Amino acid sequence: MSLDTVAYVAPVDLRPQEPAPVSTRGAYGWARAHLFGSIGQVLLTLFGIWVIYVVVPPLLKFFIFDAVWTGTGRDACLPETVGRPVGACWPFIAAKWNQIIYGFYPEAERWRVNTVYFFGAALLLPLMFPKVPYKRLNALAFFGIYPVAAFVLLTGGDLDLRNFVLGWFGLDLGLASAGGLRVGFWLQFLIVTGIAVGIGMLVCPFFGGERRSVAKTILKTFAVIGVVLLVVDIDLGLVPVETRQWGGLLVTLVIAVTGITVSLPFGILLALGRRSELPLVKYASIIFIEFWRGVPLITVLFFATYMLPLFLPGRFTIDGLLRALVGVALFASAYMAEVVRAGLQAIPKGQYEGAMALGLRSGLMMRLVVLPQALKLVIPGIVNNFIGLFKDTTLVLIVSIFDLLGILRAAFTDPSWATPTTLFTGFGFAGIVYFVFCYGMSRYSMALERRLDRNRRH
After folding, report:
1. What is the 3-state secondary structure (H, E, C) of the chain?
2. Tens digits of pLDDT across the chain (458 residues)
């Protein structure tokens, strides 16, 4: 080694010892990075601690420490009877538990509601986990078979759909003979076929060169459905239960699940229709979306409940809950369409060009390349709509449909549980229920985002 090289090497004893690097792992590292990294973070942390100190202890005191947990009447929740400050009156919730879960559903038939709850959870949970086998069969059972089975169990009606259509729609032409029924049968078949043709003409433009094959598939599908509707006649022997006897969590879940499962596919179709190059499809979708987004949901419910029956023929009636379900589903579909359209616009042009370079037709390009990426980008917006829809189910109380909140408000009028804390206990319990469902949807959407975010995988 030469002397010139040695001159540039500093002796070890002349360099001061450097401090150890600050740890970025563990609780200390996380707190330093997120809570005390700057003056602003320190101020926000102190403000958060103050808010927790002001809010959390009174809530714990009311709902847990000062709460009454046992009792059979209002005397158990009165301060003068207990001899101390009284918080939440949980015996009130226990006494009204059956109404909260089932509404006014007949007690002898509540096993049907329990069956619907059980199979709904048993079919939904496997769909939420990616590694569970037989996903397609499970999805077919949940979205295809389960709604029909739940409808039959909850209403107690049989599957005599031919008589339902003939009688309620008046297609028997006033004839009680077999010939009259045959006329009604063929009229129904023509109506179903006409609907199939209309839907085929509306949907086919989305599939480019596959219009003819898609149209044939749709026509065949609706023809089969029409024949099934006209032929199936199965009496299950269940006691009919009118929907006005439903209530509580049952109605909340029925409205929310129906709105969620209907709004997403209809929203996708409306978003694709708004981007269509066909003027009829494009402007029809725009008018539908802007109309439903411009009308408050409470107005939709009022119209469906009180105004729509005035425009129907004398023999034709629609169930009140069904009218609310249709109104909520159409309203949610319009908002979902805009969320999906935002995702479609966020896809860069290169994705379309790459799919076209691979020789994919427009239908396959949209289904295999564009839509999966668009839906992944707007998962937060989709779940936000779902959460908003779940909370908006409380509006049906205004049109005399007793959901979870409506049942609790009706229970407040019971004089045997009239205490100063009954009202706060009921609303607090309802808030906990809504928080559990909404928080669960939010956390699952975050987990789904992380699983689908392939850009961050190493």
Report:
1. CCHHHHHCCCCHHHCCCCCCCCCCCHHHHHHHHHCCCCHHHHHHHHHHHHHHHHHHHHHHHHHHHCCECCCCCHHHHCHHHHCCCCCCEHHHHHHCHHHHHHCCCCHHHHHHHHHHHHHHHHHHHHHHCCCCCCHHHHHHHHHHHHHHHHHHHHHCCCCCHHHHHHHHCCCCCCCCCHHHHHHHHHHHHHHHHHHHHHHHHHHHHHHHHHHHHHHHHHHHHHHHHHHHHHHCCCCCCCCCCCHHHCCEHHHHHHHHHHHHHHHHHHHHHHHHHHCCCCHHHHHHHHHHHHHHHCCCHHHHHHHHHHHHHHHCCCCCCCCHHHHHHHHHHHHHHHHHHHHHHHHHHHCCHHHHHHHHHCCCCHHHHHHHHHHHHHHHHCHHHHHHHHHHHHHHHHHHHHHCCCEHHHHHHHHCCCHHHCCCCHHHHHHHHHHHHHHHHHHHHHHHHHHHHHHHCHHHCC
2. 555 555 556 565 666 777 776 666 777 777 777 777 788 888 988 999 999 999 999 999 989 888 888 888 888 888 888 778 888 889 999 889 998 999 888 888 888 899 999 998 888 888 888 788 888 888 888 887 888 888 888 887 654 444 444 444 444 444 444 444 444 444 555 555 555 555 555 555 444 444 455 445 555 555 555 555 554 555 566 788 888 888 889 999 999 988 888 888 889 888 988 888 888 888 988 999 999 988 888 888 888 888 777 776 666 667 778 888 888 989 999 999 999 998 888 888 888 778 788 877 877 888 888 888 888 888 888 899 999 989 988 888 888 888 888 888 888 888 888 888 889 999 999 999 999 999 999 998 888 888 877 665 54
| Whole-structure pTM value | 0.75
- The answer to whether the CB of 196 falls within 8 A of the CB of 218 is yes
